[in-house]
Amino acid sequence: MPSAFRYSVIPALSKVTLVTLLACATLAQAFSPVFAQNPGADDSSQPRVGDDNPKGDDDNQPRVGDDNPKGDDDNQPRVGDDNPKGDDDNQPRVGDDNPKGDDDNCLTDDCDRQNRSDFNDDSKSDILWRKDDGTLSVWFMNGTTLTSSSYLNPQKADPKWQVVGTGDFNSDRQTDILWQHKDGDLVTWLMNGTTLTRSISLSPKVTDKKWQVVGTGDFNSDRQTDILWQHQDGYLSVWYMNGTTLSNSKMLNPKLDDKKWRVAGTGDFNSDRKPDILWQHQDGYLSVWFMDGTNLISSSWLNPKQVADKKWQVVGTGDFNSDRQTDILWRKDDGYLSIWLMNGTNLVSSTSPSIDHVSDTTWKVVSSR
Ligand SMILES: [Ca+2]
Ligand SMILES: [Ca+2]
Ligand SMILES: [Ca+2]
Ligand SMILES: [Ca+2]
Prior knowledge:
Blueprint: H1 18-35, H2 108-112, E1 127-131, E2 135-142, E3 145-156, E4 161-167, E5 176-181, E6 186-192, E7 195-202, E8 211-217, E9 226-231, E10 236-242, E11 245-251, E12 261-267, E13 276-281, E14 285-292, E15 295-306, E16 312-318, E17 327-332, E18 337-343, E19 346-351, E20 363-365
Antiparallel strand pairs: 1-2, 1-20, 2-3, 4-5, 5-6, 6-7, 8-9, 9-10, 10-11, 12-13, 13-14, 14-15, 16-17, 17-18, 18-19
The chain binds calcium ion (4 copies).
The site of one calcium ion has 6 residues, from loops.
């Protein structure tokens, strides 16, 4: 179970780095007017494409009815055979999206870093924070130890923009930040460490607010970070990206009808180098869908399979201790934090970070999920 304790600071103000931060803050403020109003400001003339539907051109796709039949597994987002072969012929296919051998050459780091928020390239996930006023800060982690923190440069973005994911969108091994505006615009901040180097609008814009970005990961093993979407009706879709350009999209097989489950994150929970989907049920159950690209292969409970205290929510996934096992970051509604170091789907240790409590809950964890 997540555990919790002692003192509280705002994310950017660990005692360790206060002095550094003040210096950084001054620097960041010098630059912030350029970007503070709009993460896409320097790219606003970029053409929009106008396909507002992240699942592509398959609006007419046949619906499959009861895809979450009651059974011996009521609480699990396993949905049975709700998308049998041949049942959705109208759905665009993208062929074999995980060709054999394609990821044999995958370098360890290139494969694993897709789902990291690693802003100092030490192969350990960091924690990205965003305050409701748009202020951005990173906690650099070494396992569960907070080693330092830094504001981003720029330090602040327009609060109308939400951080919806992180990933490496230009294959330079630097973690980038994916933003979505209230009106649907998508923008990537290409980063060099904690410094914005370029902001790029993604197209198409997604104006259908029923679709939300719920995660990132390389779902077709081409070393390009892809974007996972969920529709409020349960449909899941992946945007296969080529850098910051949408190259194709594909619905996940299956969809999920039980709205008590939410996508809590992505990560590789069975060490096959393919991103899986972590689910959290509103009653605290935890389950993983093992994926092969956009296809569900099998599902498994986490061990433990439930966190009874509903005040704890999964707020991020990543590899905090660089053992190539995806770990889980938790936050309680009062601001306490906990990190589950995992071995596959098994909890190895549950530890509060060295600063375990950010009592100002206008600071939100927006790390990779
Ligand atoms: Ca790091
Ligand atoms: Ca990819
Ligand atoms: Ca996997
Ligand atoms: Ca780990």
